[in-house]
Amino acid sequence: MASIEYKSKKIETRRGDISHQPDLEAIVNAANAMLLPGSGVAGAIHSAAGNQLAEECRHLAPISPGQAVITSGYNLPNRYVIHTLGPVFGRDKPEAEILANCYKNSLTLCTQKKIRSIGFPAISTGVFGYPVEEAAQIAIRTIKETIDSNPIYPEHIVIVLFTAKDKEIHDLVLKKIF
Ligand code: AR6
Which intervals hold domain Macro (predicted)? Predict the structure, then answer.
């Protein structure tokens, strides 16, 4: 675990499964446009949340790249799930801006709902093919810029990484940017 304090916020990286983060009020789903249970993060979140999540999602789909929508967490230990659609690397342009919007819009939803803690996966770095080093820089830079430019609500922001290698990459970027 690596964490830093910045302007009264705690920004942390953690290795683990996004669907097993009981201390966080909201978790983010790296969703598909139709908000259907998929593989990776979306698969883990939907199977832990149960069928009611897919039912609520059905009414909110489709979403566009960079957009974020919020639902209840159902059987997850988290009160909310924020679903965002990352860019498919090499297809959705401008990909860096779209990926940044995923983080920005998710944090804005937290502010609107007064959510204190949020966990992000490394959006777009799995099936969607975004290189992890580049995605990590965009994620962490956007978190910092969002804190700098708005009085945002969440005081605890966590990036949950599935592999040791991805965690190592994010730790280096966290140190560099903050
Ligand atoms: N917890 C945390 N991180 C995970 C988990 C997990 N349970 N499972 C995978 N990762 P991905 P994307 C990591 O593919 O690239 C889905 O099918 C994974 O190693 O879940 O945005 C959706 O339905 C990678 O680093 O999301 C969409 O169609 C990162 O999380 C599409 O994939 C993101 O991998 C979205 O693709």
Answer: 1-178
Task: Decide if 42 contacts 30 (C-beta within 8 A).
Answer: yes
Integer Cα distance of 160 and 40 in angstroms: 13
pLDDT tens track for 22-65: 999 999 999 999 999 989 999 999 999 999 999 999 999 999 99
Q: Which residue has the least CA distance to atom 23 on ligand 1?
A: 38
| CATH classification (class only), 2-177 | alpha beta
CA-CA distance, 23 to 161, in Å (whole number)?
16
Largest CA distance in the chain: 41
Pocket of ligand 1 (CB under 6 A): 17-19, 30, 32, 38-42, 44, 86, 121-128, 160, 162, 166
> Taking the model in full, what pTM does it have?
0.98
Q: Which atom of ligand 1 is nearest to the CA of 132?
A: 25
Q: Which atom of ligand 1 is nearest to the CA of 130?
A: 15
Q: Kindly list the domain boundaries of the chain, sorted by start residue.
A: 2-177
